[in-house]
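User: Predict NAD kinase's structure from this.
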Amino acid sequence: MADKKLSFAIFGNDRKALELMQVWEMLDYLSKRNADVFIEETFYRNLCRDLNGDLPVAGVFEGNSFETDYAISLGGDGTFLRAASKVGAKNIPIIGVNMGRLGFLANVLPGEVLEMLDEIYVGNFDIEERSVIKLSTDSEKFRDYPFALNDIAILKRDTASMISIRVSVGGEYVVTYLADGLIISTPTGSTAYSLSNGGPIMVPRSGILSLTPVAPHSLNIRPIVIGDDMEIKLEVESRSHSFLAAIDGRSERVDEGTTVTIAKAPFRIRIVKRHNHRYFSTLRSKLMWGADSRE
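Assistant:
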């Protein structure tokens, strides 16, 4: 029986060398399966340069101008987050191929890509749906894509003094942080920036968010975990009269007096997982739990 016709949008990391032979093998595999392959424009140009020739693909796209059955991210977690921002509410499952280092989101190794694609064609895989959060302001900032899969951070600018962040959750005042910033993290982002600031690890699909301060002035301040159905309102004061708001690392300068609201987004990001993928096994491996530093 002939393979079912599938289409793929491919994103890649343009800032470092990729395993070109494995990329070529993947494209050759998809060509033999008669798949329609669309590649992000900048990544396509770099591949053509590095491979010394044009690639046999169905098309090239910019931004989020694609409609495919699957998206493939070739890179690290940063590349995956960029792909997720382009997929947005399209409901397209994303396959993350880890050509970076740590790789919590990009969990398929380069040598496993063809096996993963085999599993896609026979339907032998899982899909995890991950919650997304949205930043809203009363200004024109972040109108293009105000959604974060990992986290939203409110931060001081450059070498400015600490900022004051007044936090309300569900309409109730919580605390005013004096700190270098505040990270609002999803469970997906709990192993990223939040973790490096002492935030909790939250299991995916647990329906919670964490508020983790960055270098708080008071040692009594600790991270707070809340339900992801609760709206968070932030009012920021700064000596520089401005601050940074970062959505999955994409930052903008925001004027003091701007009210920031963070709430659960109306859609989820769908991540393709192999059947043998186990979350706690990944944590043990990536964070080296139980490793003996004396060895």
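The longest strand covers residues 259-273.
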